[in-house]
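Today's session is about reading a structure prediction critically. Students often jump straight to the picture, but the first step is always the sequence itself: look for stretches that repeat, for charged clusters, for runs of hydrophobic residues. Only then move on to the predicted structure, which in these notes is written as discrete structure tokens rather than atom positions. Here is the chain we will use throughout the hour.
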Amino acid sequence: MHSPAPVAAGDPRPLSGIDLNLLVALDALLAERSVSAAARRLHLTEPATSRALGRIRRTTGDQILVRTGHTMVPTPRALEIQAEVSDLVRRAQGLFAPVSMPDPADLDRTFTILSSDMLIAAVGPDLLTRLATEAPAVRIRFLPEPTPSADPLRDGTADLEIGEIDSTAPEIRVETLGTDDAVLIVRAGHPLAEGPVTLDQLVAARHVVGSRRGRFRGPLDDALAAQGLRRTVAVAVPSHTVALTMVAQSDLVGIAPRRLGRSALAAVGLAVLDLDLALPPLPISLAWHPRNDADAPHRWLRTHLRDVITTALSGPPIDASV
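Below is the predicted structure for this chain, in token form.
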């Protein structure tokens, strides 16, 4: 069997052959210049620390510390590397320490959030008011909900998504914050706004659907199908706020969230229909990729989003009397 060729002086040694824990022991030994004092600093026994010194000597090819009477003195090589060893240990400790949150007032970062336009309108002003006071250099980029073939949370082009989460990536963190009620809406003065609405009246009306993907069907159609009924969807538009505008200017019937949509509904003078038909609740969630779990600024923004969304969901609903 052939012995391995010796490593030439000055050649880099493979890290796989070096115990990097020896750096911590070397730092303590050089600082204390005493095996017993280094052992106390490292919370090790003296024999264990002495063995570590032996391994350091074999690894470096230098005595590092030499006994002179009752004391130990560093070799020239030890003095040469002492500052570098201390710096390496300090940097390694910083690397593995939990990242602390910087002062929000000094935070200069852009966050990209995926959401529907209705939810942006509902929680965006409150969020931006909070950030303007606490972190004025933080910028928020709102983008529409992704298409089924895209996954911006996974590929890193978005930081967060709020609303009804469509991502199918199994690793995505999804935290449900609450639900809102879906309600049917018409313009003020619409014939259907005058009293209780029957299902026959509802299906006889023409409807608008807000769907970024151009879908004509939604939860209302499933609820009607369970009653053996089918409505007429006259138009699908890519924006919920556009759908509200069309409802306000026509006899179309639309759908909106009762609490999150209260400001938008009141602003354009829309009324909620009095209808004895339970629609599926709208789940409102917060989603992010686990790569951002421990990122302190990301956690800070998630806390603010949770607060503004739960506040919006706990507000008074708009009712049929509007």
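Discussion point for the tutorial: The mean pLDDT is 87.
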